[in-house]
């Protein structure tokens, strides 16, 4: 726990997991000054505990903070706090392929106030939980045309709690209809693919890796960026641009939709089994035939568990 008051971040404290005190007038629960991050620590075959691209989570946290009028946190404080917490007990990072320690940094306005203005007091808290991958099987997704997750000029690019609150109802409805996830479309015409509930989305169309370009309404996923960098390293054609839902339908009908998957820290690489658009379910090829997503999934795991070279310096040891 690190408190922010009198215009400065205070000394970090490590406390047993448990309830915290809060004011009923706390800014976070009235005016939505709440954001978080999601990251993972892995244990390599040699028993070394490593983080995956933690500086990118730090940078994204601060970008979100700026958008919500919250104080930025210095890199040393973020990194030192994280490393001290994880190093407390090396045994709580599982040493099994596919398993990791999920780390949840969260920051919120803790000052009790009534007028609508940014808080002057904040809390930054990090807690952890051992985890496996989110989805055990390929996911069925539906293109969402009724609800909107985020709009241009809004704060969809921030990992703000409010983005998730608004996503719960559409996700719940999709679950009731038998889907694991929805694919959000743009807030204007619902014509363009945005992202999924907890993942960015990618498609392989006729040999090219295609994903929606970043904008103010899409979360800049760190897994997304890692996949794009590796694909470019391998000489694969990569396009980051706007993608019409109709383009996916056309590619499917022409037999050119070779792969579709979600990318995220919790979900890692989640194969998409089928995409339903206006009641028509488009079935993707069997997972065994997905050359790209299988290869990228294995390579990312190998880098994280220290089984493959790490050319981009993504893996940071916790000492
Ligand atoms: N989009 C949303 C809405 C998410 O919650 C996440 C998970 N953080 C992602 C995309 C993927 O981001 P990352 O790869 O950094 O986990």
TrEMBL record:
Keyword hit for Amino-acid biosynthesis: yes
Cofactor needs: pyridoxal 5'-phosphate
CDD domains (alphabetical): BCAT_beta_family
InterPro entries: Aminotrans_IV (IPR001544), Aminotransferase-like (IPR036038), B_amino_transII (IPR005786), BCAT-like_C (IPR043132), BCAT-like_N (IPR043131), BCAT_family (IPR033939)
Recorded metabolic or biological pathway in which this protein acts: Amino-acid biosynthesis; L-valine biosynthesis; L-valine from pyruvate: step 4/4; Amino-acid biosynthesis; L-leucine biosynthesis; L-leucine from 3-methyl-2-oxobutanoate: step 4/4; Amino-acid biosynthesis; L-isoleucine biosynthesis; L-isoleucine from 2-oxobutanoate: step 4/4
A Pfam family recorded for this sequence: Aminotran_4
Name of the molecule in the record: branched-chain-amino-acid transaminase
UniProt GO MF annotations: L-isoleucine-2-oxoglutarate transaminase activity; L-leucine-2-oxoglutarate transaminase activity; L-valine-2-oxoglutarate transaminase activity
Family (UniProt): Belongs to the class-IV pyridoxal-phosphate-dependent aminotransferase family.
Keyword tags: Amino-acid biosynthesis, Aminotransferase, Branched-chain amino acid biosynthesis, Pyridoxal phosphate, Transferase
Its job: Acts on leucine, isoleucine and valine.
Reaction catalyzed: L-valine + 2-oxoglutarate = 3-methyl-2-oxobutanoate + L-glutamate; L-leucine + 2-oxoglutarate = 4-methyl-2-oxopentanoate + L-glutamate; L-isoleucine + 2-oxoglutarate = (S)-3-methyl-2-oxopentanoate + L-glutamate
Residues where N6-(pyridoxal phosphate)lysine is found: 159
GO aspect biological process, one term: L-leucine biosynthetic process
Presence of the UniProt keyword Transmembrane helix in the record: no
EC number in record: 2.6.1.42
């Amino acid at each position: 726990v690190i408190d922010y008051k009198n215009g400065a971040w205070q000394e970090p404290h490590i406390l047993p997991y448990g309830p915290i005190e809060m004011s009923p007038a706390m800014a976070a629960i009235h005016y939505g000054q709440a954001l978080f991050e999601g990251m993972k620590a892995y244990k390599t075959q040699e028993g070394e505990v490593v983080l995956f691209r933690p500086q990118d989570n730090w940078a994204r946290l601060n970008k979100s903070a700026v958008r919500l009028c919250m104080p930025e946190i210095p890199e040393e404080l973020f990194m030192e706090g994280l490393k001290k917490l994880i190093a407390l007990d090396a045994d709580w990072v599982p040493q099994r392929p596919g398993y990791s320690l999920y780390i949840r940094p969260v920051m919120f306005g803790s000052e009790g106030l009534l007028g609508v203005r940014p808080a002057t007091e904040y809390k930054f808290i990090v807690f952890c939980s051992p985890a496996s991958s989110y989805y055990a099987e390929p996911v069925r997704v539906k293109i969402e045309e009724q609800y909107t997750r985020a709009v241009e000029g809004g704060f969809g690019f921030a990992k703000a709690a409010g983005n998730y609150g608004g996503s719960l109802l559409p996700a719940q409805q999709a679950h009731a209809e038998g889907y694991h996830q929805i694919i959000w479309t743009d807030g204007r015409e619902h014509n363009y693919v945005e992202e999924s509930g907890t993942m960015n989305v990618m498609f392989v169309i006729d040999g090219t890796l295609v994903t929606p370009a970043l904008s103010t309404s899409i979360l800049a996923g760190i897994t997304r960026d890692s996949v794009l960098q590796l694909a470019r390293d391998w000489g694969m054609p990569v396009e980051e641009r706007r993608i019409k839902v109709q383009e996916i339908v056309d590619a499917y009908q022409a037999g050119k939709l070779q792969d579709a998957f979600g990318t995220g820290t919790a979900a890692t690489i989640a194969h998409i089994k089928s995409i339903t658009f206006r009641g028509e379910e488009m079935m993707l090829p069997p997972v065994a035939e997905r050359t790209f997503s299988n290869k990228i999934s294995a390579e990312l795991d190998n880098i994280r568990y220290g089984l493959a070279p790490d050319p981009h310096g993504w893996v940071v040891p916790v000492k």
